[in-house]
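Weekly sync, protein design subgroup
Attendees: M.S., D.O., the rotation student, P.L. (late)

Item 1: inverse folding check
M.S. brought a backbone from last month's batch and wanted to see whether the design step gives back something sensible before we order anything. D.O. pointed out we never logged the input encoding, so this time it goes straight into the notes. Structure tokens as presented (307 positions):
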């Protein structure tokens, strides 16, 4: 049995050439399923081989999610479910591409139903309307291909729970959603994925808070957004508002040390590191908080394997 955690996008709303928008792919392989082989050295990225067997779960879909999925050895047609954390464009702008690609790839890949899980409210409303601009394109293609004009998706909204609560399961793999603190966004969630190999927690966008601790309790891998607050504090006052709802590196270190999570994957990096020295500054600040586990300041396609 093997569980793989791959960061499909480490970016933010600010565009960079090498960082796709926010996203995490979690895959579980059991029995004789083909497992994508990754170079597991720290800093490695990308699959050398792989197939669509196993369970494929995508969390958020920022810009360029589809090509990152394919580079990781997955694809829209391989996804068993897609989960959204909140209604911010950098986490959703690639969702239409995932859904439309799932529909067009179905001609060749026999894609099944793609359920989309999201907190009720603004996020589910976006999902319900996201294909309105494409209705004519879908109709024309469907008439030509003699098939249904709507993608095989199903929006499955849930009320934001007070504590981590199961929202999806298949066999011995389950996904729990729990609240996080990303005000003024209402209803933002993070996720906890439990497989026979261990537990993966995904913060979404949030302050460091007790709610994240509940998601990460007993986790083997924590995927955490990270901001270097000292850098942002040097910006003009009208540019500092993002400090109000993102996770401070030192506080991440303190929380992860208290929870004793073995592996920490930092993503949604603010400011985006351009060099290895920049990455080391993230590591140093997390260490100042007291965390002594493995820290990965992730590039796109960074992968951790649980066995």
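Designed sequence read out in the meeting:
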């Amino acid at each position: 049995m093997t569980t793989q955690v791959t960061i499909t996008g480490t970016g933010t709303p600010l565009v960079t050439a090498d960082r796709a928008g926010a996203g995490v792919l979690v895959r579980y392989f059991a029995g004789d399923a083909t497992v994508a082989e990754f170079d597991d050295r720290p800093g490695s990225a990308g699959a050398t081989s792989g197939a669509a067997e196993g369970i494929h779960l995508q969390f958020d879909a920022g810009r360029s999610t589809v090509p990152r999925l394919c580079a990781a050895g997955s694809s829209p047609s391989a996804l068993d479910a897609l989960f959204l954390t909140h209604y911010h464009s950098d986490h959703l702008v690639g969702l239409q591409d995932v859904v439309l690609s799932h529909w067009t790839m179905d001609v060749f890949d026999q894609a099944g139903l793609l359920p989309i899980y999201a907190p009720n409210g603004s996020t589910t409303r976006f999902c319900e309307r996201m294909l309105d601009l494409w209705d004519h394109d879908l109709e024309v293609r469907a008439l030509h291909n003699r098939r249904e004009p709507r993608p095989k998706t199903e929006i499955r909204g849930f009320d934001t729970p007070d504590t981590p609560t199961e929202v999806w399961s298949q066999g011995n793999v389950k996904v729990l959603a729990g609240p996080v603190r990303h005000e003024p966004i209402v209803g933002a969630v993070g996720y906890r994925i439990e497989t026979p190999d261990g537990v993966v927690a995904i913060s979404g966008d949030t302050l460091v808070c007790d709610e994240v601790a509940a998601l990460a309790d007993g986790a083997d891998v924590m995927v955490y957004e990270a901001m270097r607050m000292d850098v942002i504090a040097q910006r003009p006052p009208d540019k500092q508002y993002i400090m109000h709802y993102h996770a401070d590196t030192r506080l991440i270190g303190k929380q992860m040390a208290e929870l004793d999570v073995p592996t920490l994957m930092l993503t949604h990096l603010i400011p985006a590191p351009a060099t290895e020295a920049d990455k080391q500054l993230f590591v140093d600040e997390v260490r100042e908080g007291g965390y002594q586990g493995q820290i990965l300041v992730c590039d796109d396609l960074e992968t951790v394997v649980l066995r």
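Discussion: DSSP finds nine helices and 16 strands in the chain. The radius of gyration is 19 Å.
Action: P.L. to compare against the previous round before Friday.
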